[in-house]
Amino acid sequence: MIRRMIEELPTIRPDTPLLDGVSGGVSKLGGLESRELVRLAEELRHDLLYSVAGTGGHFGAGLGVVELTVALHHVLNTPHDRIVWDVGHQTYPHKILTGRRDRMGTMRQIEGLSGFPKRSESPFDTFGVGHSSTSISAAMGMALAAEKQGIDRKVVAVIGDGAITGGMAFEALAHAGHERPNMLVILNDNQMSIGHNTGGLATYFAKIWASKTYTALREGSKKILGHVRGAWDLAKRTEEHMKGMVAPGTMFEELGWHYIGPLDGHDLPQLVSTLRLMLDLTGPQFLHIRTIKGKGFAPAERDPIGYHAINKLEPAKAAPNTPTPVKPKAPKYQDVFGQWLCDLAAADERVVGITPAMCEGSGMVGYAKQYPGRFYDVAIAEQHSVTLAAGMACDGLKPVLAIYSTFLQRGYDQLIHDVALQNLDVTFAIDRAGLVGQDGPTHHGTFDLSFLRCVPNMVIGVPSDEAQCRKILQSAWLHDGPAAVRYPRGEGTGAALEPDLNTVAVGKAQMIRQGANVAILNFGVLLDQALIAAETLNASVVDMRWVKPLDEQMILSLVEDHDCLITLEENAIAGGAGSAVAEFLAASGVTCAVRQVGIPDHFIAHAGQNECRQLAGLTADDIISIAGSTQPSMTQQAL
């Protein structure tokens, strides 16, 4: 079904005469008339559909902001004026308009365009993003910088209704309400996260508030009533209460923002006139627009979650005369986790599942349906999710927090102070650990072993396949204290899953292959590469399974029979699992060469997942090369 709907995407570049004339020269947008802008938006939407069909990538969000993107580049003098996009999923139309249309075919590919705004890619990308809820803070910093330097510059932040649920966004809103910089925040409400009022009354009043007449009346009244003690405050409160009856803007007004909305985000002429009006006002301005995620592509409008991103559309192949048996796909790690959580919840009523807006991505849809009273999606609030779990653990529940590795970085303070310091029984299921591929360095999970390993009371599991993942999750959950299990994005190896809730001993490794001279200590899902390298090296291979606690007895026994230990991990070398091994040997007074294979000291660019591993030097050939080098660059000698 999904394949059939995706095939509705265009595979032949559409005719786009207006877009052809402005691509790479957004200054030309300023001279277009209203009807031309509407036609340009239509051409841009068609071109985006064509581009994403050829490359895959984030899809629905970009379709939803086509009119807004055109309006912003029409009204603003970019890149002198600043547009700060939150998250960045929606910036494909922006990239097409700002000189990168001919490179859209390289999107998210090795050495191609990034799937997110990237400062080094274009001067029009004013702030690099990938995580949520950062745009208002960054835009405020730019607005204050312009003010301090006497630069006449417009600054606009575009944030979605999901991203604005993040605490950082509200911190910035509150601060800007106090400092009162000249800036505009546009809330792109595609009705995926926050509630909204419906009906003609709200839209009618929004248009009044966005009119020049109302604005002139408001500003004139402010000047007159400002001289009468208490009069302007009374008038402003009256205005806020009137707005609050028909629109959801009272909260933003209370924070010190001038709120207008909600407006139709696909009404381009109305957007242009409203933007012009609001950008001429002083102080913090807040425009609330409503859009349809996936606008212009019916399947995406019907299923905005399923079409958040799509894979590349491959041409259909003719069926062979003799059908080739199709090997069943291995389950994704997120689905292994989701099934384990359902099985665990059926066996123990203390189980609760928590996620910060990653229900689908973390494989929790089935759990949420089966156990809605024991499921908590806290929205984009990673810090809160960790402390919420801590509070539950204080009073008899056994929470499991499903969170992406890259997003756990935001909850690090809470993990240390609220969970680990109090030795609370919280299990962290860390998805997307390691190199995630095309989403690139903002989404790679390459630091969690380093930042978790140094925290007292933490137990850290690193399964090598989906069968080990299920067992190690169960072992971590049974551990009385904080425990984390990290696993990658994508499919497993096809290892057979046991239906029972079986365990492995915490801190115990498993010998996989007995060899000589060299021993490869594998931490995580690179076991296949270790085994390939071991065949050439005649090396021993140990699946370590746990980073903390280490199987110290296994390591000491390997030192007795081998001259060199090679540690293998999909994590930063600095402070990672290999460092743990070297530190243990040094503390034990044991001399043995320890050579570490892991993520080097730089950010790995976006590419396919396996291409990322090649870029990082995590292949069997890299292991063999390091084993044969007399002075490898990634070597530590335990003294």
The first-level CATH class of the largest domain is given as: Alpha Beta
Estimate the strand proportion.
15-25%
Spatial shape: globular
Q: Return the structural class.
A: alpha/beta
CATH superfamily of the largest domain: Thiamin diphosphate (ThDP)-binding fold, Pyr/PP domains
Overall radius of gyration:
27 Å
- Percent helix range: 40-55%
Which topology of the largest domain does CATH recognise? Rossmann fold
Helix count, DSSP H or I runs of 4 or more residues: 26
Number of strands: 20
For the termini, the CA-CA separation is: 61 Å
Q: Are there runs of 5+ residues with pLDDT below 50, and where?
A: 1-7, 193-202, 313-318, 630-639
Architecture overview:
- With 639 residues, this protein is of the alpha/beta class.
- The protein has three domains: 2-196 and 248-302, Rossmann fold, CATH 3.40.50.970; 333-486, Thiamin diphosphate (ThDP)-binding fold, Pyr/PP domains (Rossmann fold); 510-638, Rossmann fold (3-Layer(aba) Sandwich).
- Helix content is 41%, strand content 16%.
- It contains 26 helices and 20 strands.
- The longest helix is centred in the N-terminal third of the chain and has 22 residues, at 34-55.
- The chain is globular, with a radius of gyration of 27 Å.
Brief sketch in words of this structure:
The protein is an alpha/beta fold and 639 residues long. It is built from 26 helices and 20 strands.
Chart the SSEs and their pairings.
Layout: H1 2-6, H2 17-22, H3 34-55, E1 57-58, H4 60-64, H5 66-75, E2 82-85, H6 92-100, H7 135-149, E3 155-160, H8 167-179, E4 183-189, H9 200-209, H10 212-225, H11 231-246, H12 250-254, E5 258-264, H13 268-279, E6 284-290, H14 298-302, E7 309-310, H15 333-347, E8 351-355, H16 365-370, E9 375-377, H17 382-394, E10 398-404, H18 405-408, H19 412-420, E11 427-431, H20 448-453, E12 459-461, H21 466-478, E13 483-486, E14 510-513, E15 517-523, H22 527-537, E16 540-543, E17 546-548, H23 552-561, E18 562-572, H24 577-588, E19 592-599, H25 609-616, H26 620-628, E20 635-638
